Amino acid sequence: MRLILAHEADFDGWRRAARALALAGVPPAQTEWSVGEAAGGAPEPAAGAFSVPRRLLQLAETVIQAADPERFALLYTLVWRVHGGERQLLDDAADPLMQRLQAMAEAVQRASPAGRLAGLAEEASGCRRCPLWQPATQTVFGHGPATARLMLVGEQPGDMEDLAGKPFVGPAGQLLDRALAEAGIDRSGVYVTNAVKHFKFEPRGRRRIHATPDPGEIEICRFWLDQERALIRPALTLLLGGSAARAVLGRAVTISRERGRPVALAGGRALVTVHPSYLLRLPDEAAAAREYAAFVSDLRAAKTLSE
Prior knowledge:
Oligomer: single chain
Low-confidence stretches: none
CATH class of the largest domain: Alpha Beta
Distance between the termini: 47 Å
Structural class: alpha/beta
Largest sheet: 5 strands, mixed
CATH architecture of the largest domain: 3-Layer(aba) Sandwich
Number of strands: 9
Radius of gyration: 26 Å
Number of helices: 12
CATH superfamily of the largest domain: Uracil-DNA glycosylase-like domain
Mean pLDDT: 94
């Protein structure tokens, strides 16, 4: 029996056909799967109970996106066997069918934006492009979903970020979290990163004091930031401070002059604002409150521009 699906990733069509075939008792060896404009070929759905584990459907949703032309037939074989009583098959890592389907699923996941981003982070963990890696504890790569419409770019990891391996987890990050919440932005949906991925500091006794990255270090580390931006393709990139603005815009920026003015980028826009650490350094309470309110206002504007 020849089954024709509407397109290469026609999961709904495959699912309907697989259900009808299994209920009709058509074994995998008697099926032939292809893709074409005239979809169809499956028998009319027969009456009867049909149930497969959700895990099987989740695996199928991923494997359908693979390039292997045998994926439809192999997935139907899995349905046939599980529907026939081999429920344990999904947990059998030694089964040749499961091994092949899992390999297809892993290949799809690696090729997805999230998979490519994870691969990029792993590659960056061994970065030796500039000397900053030597005294640092580790590379601090970006964090957040590959589908984020809003990207936040800071300067560099601080002491706590260097130890934790994640961006914006120290005092500036805590202030950022509070401001994001006030602006109505869920941080879990935002991609947060830095212009420079290693902590640059000056040792003073047991303390490590932040040192501003120089233009050369920012330029070298653009290798990673450019790839993050190319994978995520955010609608808006919020630039937190001068180093972030230089890294993305490729020039020195005066924050007070360009703050809050959308800047066109390839495939999106950018907005310049202050870095949250600036707010922590303000000694005057009234000035700190005023600047914090302005920062929250910038975040609200970023939210609107990214929607």
